[in-house]
Design goal:
This protein is an alpha/beta fold and 418 residues long. The radius of gyration is 23 Å and the shape is globular. Helices cover 41% and strands 21% of the residues. A 5-stranded mixed beta sheet has the order 6-5-4-7-11, sandwiched between helices. It has a 5-stranded mixed beta sheet with strand order 14-13-12-15-16. It is built from 16 helices and 16 strands.
Length: 418
Amino acid sequence: MSRLADDWLRLVLGVFYQKRTLTRADLLQATGLNPASASHAIRHLLDRGVLIKTGDVESNGGRSRDVLDLNTEAGYFVAVDLEGTSIRFALTNLVGDIRFRFGRDLEPNQPIDIDAVVNGIRSVLNQLSELQRKRVLACGVSHPGIIDDRGRITAVNLGWQDAPLWEGLQSTLEMPVYLENAHRTCILAERWLGSAKGSDNCIYVIVGNGVGIGAFVDGKILEGHSGIAGELGHVTIDPNASDLCLCGRRGCLEAIASCASIARQYFTHVSHQSEIHPTWRVTDVFERARRNDEVALAVLDRAARYLGIGLAHLVLVLNPEIIVIGGPILAGAELMFDRMRSELASHTLPAFLRELEIRPSSLGLDIGLKGASALAFRESLRTSDFLRNLANTPKSKRRRSGVNRRDKAAADSVLTSN
């Protein structure tokens, strides 16, 4: 197919990814394609089993209209979630539905074991039939920390320094591999599948071992000049605080309000120990706060207050319509969210709050896996190989297509809007 026809397919697949079921009229409205171009793309995808006709609906004029479904089993992705303290693997279908998953714990504050990642991916593939393996299109990896232009990961809160993850995976796996920071994979998943579905201005805030954000601004994912935007946890939220961050500075939001820091503050106070113990869990702090433990309540109140101030900074700078909160912090939502909201309101201008919604993540513990799958779909969609390989599309079947100006403009927008 021509490059322009590929762009039509990208538009159509991107819409079906989010909607799953559409009529032709719905598709025309969503993509801006003209009827001939849309029909060309639909016919191509129907012929290859990527779309399925599932019924008819009657239009206002009395004519029936085809109802089309995305065949979500037309292709698969391997999804990897490097949570920091554990690593999880899954096989997902095209839209991130998890077919099976498994995981293993990681040694804290140790270099990442790249062989373990490779072996886990191979274990996923080994559970598939030959036909299923042919439909595995790519691997997406959601990781903490910062990645450089050579695919090396640094996560100071985990003790990872320049880990050559991309090179280790790409050199040993016979499929495309895509890596992205967990902040951004999570906002991809939430915007395409979750609580921020369809929003052009939304933020995902993850509070776990660290604190970070992923954001869409005017329909485009926020990446920054070097691709490392989103490190909210290393904003100095209190320059007078004594809390020492693993980055070496004091007063970082992460040093006060991450789940690891909440556990550290509570247990160092009650145990009078300065050394962090690996069995300390934020969930234990939540449980003690529910039993009106004064120290636990004070630690959570402090963390929630600074998280609210951090959210206020984001709202004033980015003006989102939706903020999604995710990560292990959700286990204590009823203990912290009201204070977070009140601090946000106290440090933000009223105009910024009128249409702002704050929601918990709707994707649960699987958001990292779903985000990795969404990453694999998003990046694969940019490539012609993906369009050819999806549902075993024959490479030899290509057609020349004329250029329509409206279609060209619509096609040019697909990669920036998704």
